[in-house]
Design goal:
mainly alpha; 2 domains; 6 helices
Length: 149
């Protein structure tokens, strides 16, 4: 199957792949076999950048055997701002939810946890998480501390 896309659509596709690649691999120290097929498809699509008239997007790195984004690509692409927003939003959401889950689990014994309906439990986590959301919105991490007791 051939895919007929414009230069602008190719650029959007590349940016979407960059976002997906970041989400899948940002914390990997070594490439995983589990995502080899994703990396291969990414590489195949990126390899067409010259044919699409977008020479400023990538350079091929012999060392990494992959296409590396140029400074121009990173500075002109919307995907970096989207990623930064995602990471920031996800950080606060996860922090609130995990602290709320911890607090709720500490306030209940194992038997109570087992007997609580999962949807009711998650509702309680959401309520407790909202309190953390308010705290972090007002004070950021300023009042968050580790109890060294």
């Amino acid at each position: 199957m051939l895919l007929n896309i414009s230069k602008d659509e190719y650029r959007l596709l590349v940016e979407m792949l960059q976002v997906a690649d970041y989400v899948m691999h940002a914390h990997d120290l070594e490439p995983s076999e589990k995502t080899e097929d994703y990396r291969a498809l990414r590489k195949k699509i990126f390899s067409n950048y010259k044919k699409m008239g977008l020479e400023g997007l990538f350079k091929y790195s012999e060392e990494h055997k992959d296409y590396i984004e140029t400074e121009e690509s990173l500075s002109e692409s919307r995907h970096m701002a989207l990623l930064e927003n995602f990471v920031e939003t996800e950080f606060w959401a996860q922090l609130s939810q995990r602290l709320a889950m911890r607090d709720l689990m500490e306030s209940m014994d194992d038997d109570e946890v087992d007997k609580t309906d999962p949807s009711e439990f998650m509702e309680k986590v959401g309520e407790a998480g909202a309190q953390y959301d308010e705290e972090f919105e007002a004070h950021g991490l300023d009042r968050l501390a580790i109890d060294k007791a």
